[in-house]
Amino acid sequence: MKIYHYTDTGEYKGETDARVDPLDANNYLIPRNATTQAPPQVGDNQAAIYDGQEWSIEEDHRGTQYWLADEYDSEEPPHTVESIGALPEGALLTKPDVPENIASERLAKVEVTPMKFQIAVETLYPGLLDTIEAIVDAQPRTVQIAWHKAQGVKRDDPTLEAMRQHPAIDKTPAEVDDIFRLAATL
Question: Measured between alpha carbons, how far apart are the two ends of the chain, in Å?
Fold first, then answer.
């Protein structure tokens, strides 16, 4: 006769043949944490659990790594499921991206050196730097000085926004964001 073993928490751990009772050949010995009821077949991420009366199927994600939605900035390693049961509510199997509204707020505060800005512009939009310089050179002398002597270029600078909208430049906010993303990596 087959018997089915389970852990103290009820998890199925295997089957063996029951031993015959040495005092009664018509009886079998059923040890603690074993039953004669066969467990149900389980699929991926499932475990058979015996509650002392019957078997049930529970979700089993042990070993699965996950993040929570607000952990987009975390340098900590992912969480690991250690017990039988469903994944925690809101669990994500890949590290979440920074939400767009937060990414935009952060990017608006980015300041890069003029050199990095110029390299990024030339890398992404060859020739555009010449157009920007021509537009600046056509501005009043104070604007030219401010542009050429700037210690940094900020994404949220109103002058930069006005230039972005100039018909000769005509870049979308997303395209300007790309310039700053690249410049920040240089």
Answer: 71
Q: How far is CA 11 from CA 32, 44, 141, in A?
A: 13, 15, 79
Beta strands in 51-101 (DSSP E): 55-59, 65-66, 79-80
What is the structure's pLDDT at 5? 97
The closest alpha carbon to 102, from 129, 136, 69, belongs to: 69
State yes or no: pLDDT of 56 exceeds 80. yes
Secondary structure class of 90 (helix, strand, coil): coil
Tell me phi and psi for residue 161, to 5 degrees.
-65, -40
- 65 and 107 belong to one structural domain: no
The SS3 call for residue 25 is strand
Beta strand 55-59 with 46-50: parallel, antiparallel or unpaired?
A: antiparallel
Residues 40-50 have pLDDT tens digits of: 999 999 999 99
As a whole number, mean pLDDT of residues 83-95 equals 91
**What's the CA gap between 165 and 145, in Å, rounded?**
21
Query: How many domains would you assign to the chain?
Result: 3
Closest-CA residue to 93 (of 114, 79, 108, 112):
79
For residue 178, give its domain range: 100-185
Q: Are 147 and 160 in contact (CB under 8 A)?
A: no
**Residues 6+ positions from 154 with CB-CB distance below 8 Å:** 109, 110, 111, 160
Is 105 in the same domain as 165? Answer: yes
CA dihedral 133, 137, 141, 144 (to 10 degrees): 0
